[in-house]
């Protein structure tokens, strides 16, 4: 019997007291949450069976039922990984393979019996991340009359792994992208169970940042996620390419990259496992979890024995940009953007010619005028700006344009605010620094260094996100009007360095440089 059924400390068959919130009954059994400051939190709810033993590298299976009342007071394990030392969202639990848990926050009392639902997908490059970090606490969303859900999904080689023996075992089933399968299973759980918490299964907003944003693109474009959510928010999630270099499960693509199966065989060979039969698969599943992780994290992502997500033909059928260009995929309202110093991986350069080399001599002067009009940036700074534009900023604009072209209401933003305590250290808003403002968990992130300016922006940003979840538009009383995105005027909402009182829509000041990046793609 699985650990979640045998851990007796998780369960109680006693009746609730006056201080305890009433039990919630879902498909697997009864849950007892924890009430604090008008919010009830339910943590560590299994949404699928533990993916261990014979279930390692299998599609998620149904969660076992339990008897009595399960105490949902603590996060479940984050998924197995090697934590990233400088992660801005450090894990709050010890990673383990038994990790397919989710968490729900709800208001203790609400007149509305069908509240909007927001489902969060964490980032971490598909090798790190979890739902337990304090910055991802959903309490502030629940205070805004939203049912907030977060969940764990498998990362690293547990989440993205292919091998011919797996293909032989399940030739007609889902293979390889187990982390994405987990995301779909969590969304299906929401559809089946969220009404028990007072949530509306017909009003679900899916949102995520970085790898979580990439995941939202995957869910938007996967035929297997159709109908599981109704609005999408993509924070620094790209929008053109979200797959591991275009790798395929069973074949090499036209660029000559190794297939995902070939990469899986490299990992097997490293561990002295040969062959492609059931014996080889049993040996792979018998490897200790730490051996499968093998130190993989965001410092070691470009590893020849790790594929990352790939095209499997069923869940992931193509790159998002190819699906969007075909006029499909963006079938719901969208809110999308990036930070003003977002992530990118530039080469080391010494001259401006090297920094702008992708544009060639023909467009060098045009690019120099767009990226360094006042001759104040170093070549390395310009290379970083270009890498950020290529990876996050221009793809966000591309996603906005694709959604608008498909007739969807779409709202674009750029986040440029830096916490007062970090203004001397950060020249702009780094990758992921908008998250504490979206969640209004800036107190957890900045503690005693938090200022009224920081707090005001967090309240403003979260109101926009909540409004979008409730009404398909971020606009609401007392907020600067946020116009729908239109490629003709290219207006975005700027969350500026000066703070909430200066938030306003503007014509994108980076239009010229993003146009150049778009030409590179074409």
Would you give an account of this structure?
- The chain is an alpha/beta fold and 522 residues long.
- Helix content is 30%, strand content 15%.
- It is built from 17 helices and 15 strands.
- The strands form two sheets. An eleven-stranded mixed sheet has the order 4-5-7-9-8-10-11-12-13-14-15, sandwiched between helices. The chain has a four-stranded mixed sheet with strand order 1-6-3-2, with no helix packed on it.
- Mean pLDDT is 94; it is low at 1-18.
User: How is the biggest beta sheet arranged?
Assistant: 11 strands, mixed
Mean pLDDT metric: 94
Which structural category do the helix and sheet elements fall into? alpha/beta
Strand fraction equals 15-25%
Helical proportion? 25-40%
Shape: globular
Q: How far apart are the termini?
A: 55 Å
Number of strands: 15
Uncertain residue ranges: 1-18
In the sheet with the most strands, the strands line up as 4-5-7-9-8-10-11-12-13-14-15
Question: What is the number of helices?
Answer: 17
CA gyration radius, whole angstroms: 23 Å
């Amino acid at each position: 019997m699985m650990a979640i059924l045998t851990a007796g400390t998780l369960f109680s068959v006693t009746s609730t007291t006056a201080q305890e919130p009433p039990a919630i009954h879902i498909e697997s059994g009864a849950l007892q949450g924890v009430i604090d400051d008008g919010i009830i939190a339910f943590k560590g709810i299994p949404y699928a069976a533990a993916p261990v033993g014979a279930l390692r590298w299998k599609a998620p299976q149904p969660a076992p039922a339990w008897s009595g009342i399960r105490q949902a007071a603590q996060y479940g394990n984050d998924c197995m990984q090697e934590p990233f030392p400088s992660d801005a969202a450090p894990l709050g639990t010890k990673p383990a393979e038994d990790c397919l848990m989710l968490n729900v926050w709800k208001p203790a009392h609400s007149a509305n019996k069908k509240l909007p639902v927001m489902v969060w997908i964490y980032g971490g490059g598909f090798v790190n991340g979890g739902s337990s970090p304090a910055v991802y606490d959903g309490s502030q969303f629940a205070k805004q009359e939203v049912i907030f859900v977060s969940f764990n999904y498998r990362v690293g080689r547990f989440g993205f792994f292919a091998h011919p023996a797996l293909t032989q075992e399940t030739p007609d089933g889902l293979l390889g992208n187990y982390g994405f399968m987990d995301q779909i299973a969590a969304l299906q759980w929401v559809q089946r169970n969220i009404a028990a918490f007072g949530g509306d299964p017909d009003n679900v907003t899916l949102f995520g940042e970085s790898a979580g944003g990439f995941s939202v693109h995957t869910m938007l474009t996967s035929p297997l996620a159709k109908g599981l959510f109704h609005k999408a928010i993509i924070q620094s999630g790209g929008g053109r390419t979200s797959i591991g270099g275009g790798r395929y499960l069973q074949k090499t693509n036209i660029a000559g990259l190794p297939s995902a199966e070939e990469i899986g065989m490299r990992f097997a060979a490293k561990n002295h496992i040969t062959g492609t039969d059931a014996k080889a698969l049993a040996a792979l599943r018998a490897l200790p979890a730490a051996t499968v992780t093998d130190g993989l994290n965001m410092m070691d992502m470009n590893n020849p024995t790790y594929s990352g997500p790939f095209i499997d033909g069923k869940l992931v059928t193509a790159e998002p940009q190819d699906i969007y260009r075909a006029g499909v995929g963006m079938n719901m309202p969208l809110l999308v953007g990036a930070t003003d110093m977002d992530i990118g991986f530039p080469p080391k350069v010494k001259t401006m010619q090297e920094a702008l080399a992708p544009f060639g001599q023909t467009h060098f002067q045009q690019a120099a005028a767009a990226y360094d009009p006042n001759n104040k940036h170093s070549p390395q700074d310009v290379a970083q700006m270009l890498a950020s534009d290529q990876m996050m900023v221009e793809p966000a604009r591309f996603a906005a344009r694709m959604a608008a072209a498909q007739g969807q209401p779409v709202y674009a933003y750029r986040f440029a605010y830096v916490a007062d305590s970090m203004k001397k250290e950060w020249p702009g808003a780094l990758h992921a620094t908008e998250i504490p403002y979206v969640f209004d968990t800036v107190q957890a992130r900045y503690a005693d260094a938090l200022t009224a300016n920081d707090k005001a922006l967090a309240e403003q940003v979260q109101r926009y996100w909540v409004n979008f979840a409730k009404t398909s538009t971020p606009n609401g009383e007392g907020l600067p009007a946020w116009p729908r995105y239109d490629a003709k005027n290219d207006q975005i909402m700027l969350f500026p360095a000066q703070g909430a009182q200066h938030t306003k829509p503007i014509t994108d000041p980076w239009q010229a440089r993003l146009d150049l990046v778009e030409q590179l793609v074409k």
